[in-house]
Specification:
Layout: H1 2-16, E1 29-33, H2 37-51, E2 56-60, E3 63-68, E4 76-83, E5 86-92, H3 101-109
Antiparallel strand pairs: 1-5, 2-3, 3-4, 4-5
Length: about 110
C-alpha cells in the first residue's frame, strides 16, 4: 500500500513539473524585440542563470529555448524565435504562486 501511495504521489509531482510549453495554452508573457534571437538569448541567459544556476539554452527550429528547471513546480521556459526583423519572446511560467518576478523582469530588461 505504501508503494502504491508513493507511486501516485511521485506521478502527481512529475505531472506538475512538465514544461509549460508542452501544455496547450498561451504564454504568460508574449513580447517582441528588435534583437535577433541570438542576441536576445545572449542577454537573457546570464540573467536567468543568476536566479537558477541550472538554466540551460537549447537551439530550436528558428531560435532558442531557455529552460530554468524547478524541483517543485513547473519549469520556467522562454522561447525566443525569429520574427520579422527581430524576435518573438514567449515566457511560460508555472502556477501564480511559483512565478518568478526576477525572471519576468529580465525578459523585459533584455527587450
Amino acid at each position: 500500500m505504501r508503494m502504491l501511495i508513493g507511486g501516485i504521489a511521485l506521478a502527481m509531482l512529475a505531472g506538475c513539473s512538465l514544461p509549460a510549453s508542452l501544455v496547450p495554452g498561451e504564454p504568460n508573457v508574449s513580447k517582441y524585440s528588435s534583437k535577433v534571437p541570438k542576441d536576445y538569448a545572449a542577454c537573457i541567459l546570464p540573467l536567468w542563470q543568476q536566479q537558477v544556476s541550472r538554466t540551460a539554452q537549447t537551439s530550436i527550429s528558428n531560435g532558442y529555448r531557455i529552460n530554468a528547471p524547478s524541483v517543485i513546480t513547473a519549469d520556467e521556459i522562454l522561447d525566443v524565435v525569429k520574427y520579422k526583423d527581430g524576435s518573438r519572446i514567449s515566457l511560460y511560467q508555472g502556477p501564480p504562486w511559483a512565478k518568478s518576478a526576477a525572471m519576468r523582469k529580465a525578459v523585459k530588461d533584455c527587450l
